Every structure is written in structure tokens, then in C-alpha cells.
Amino acid sequence: MLRSRLINLPKTVKRNISTNIPALQKATDPIQQLFLDKLREYKSKSTGGKLVDAGPEILKEHQSEIDKLNVQYGGDKGVDMTQFPQFKFVDPAVDVGSVDKK
Fold first, then answer.
1. Chain centre to alpha carbon of residue 58
2. 85-94: per-residue pLDDT in tens?
3. DSSP 8-state secondary structure symbol assigned to residue 98
4. What is the rounded average pLDDT for all residues in the chain?
5. From which domain of life does this come (predicted)?
6. CA–CA separation, 84 vs 97, rounded Å?
7. Distance (Å, rounded) from C-alpha 22 to C-alpha 5?
8. How many CB atoms lie within 10 A of CB 100?
9. Residue 32 pLDDT > 90
10. Residue 10 pLDDT more than 80?
11. How far apart are CA 6 and CA 1, in angstroms?
């Protein structure tokens, strides 16, 4: 029944549906199930974009690397490096008197 409905779909849609169906089902392999459980556990721990299970020495090293990158790419204290830079283009003044009139 599903195959008869898929006959009218483009080939790329058929391919995407057929490759995603096994991913939507429950894992039958115990190793695969363990992997999926670990992914779900990691997802639940990684809230707010923070490092997962990081000790104080890892956080200190992470902050020092961020500080080095900020200095290298022009960030200073008080500069928000997550914002896109604002560009201001000013047209140069043109001296019309020096243009040769013919």
C-alpha cells in the first residue's frame, strides 16, 4: 500500500523516505541502542551551549583559548565578538574645481 503511494513521488523523495524509515524505528542491535541512549543522555546534559561534564581545569583552559582568539581577531574587553561587525562607508569628498572642463 505504501509502495503504491510512493510510485507517484519523485525519485529523491522516495530515496529520502526509504533511508529515514530505519532511523525512525527502534534499534534492534544492542550496540546501536546503547549508542542512541548515550546520544539522548548527551542531548539532555548539553543545555545552554555549555561543555558537558567539564571540570574547572577544562573550563579554565577553554576560557583562555577564547581569550587568545579574541585578542587575535581584534576583540578586546567590552567588545561583543558574537555580533556581526558594523561597517560605515563614507563617500570621499570630490574637489570639483580641479576637474578639467572642456
1. 22
2. 888 999 988 8
3. G
4. 77
5. Eukaryota
6. 40
7. 19
8. 4
9. yes
10. no
11. 9
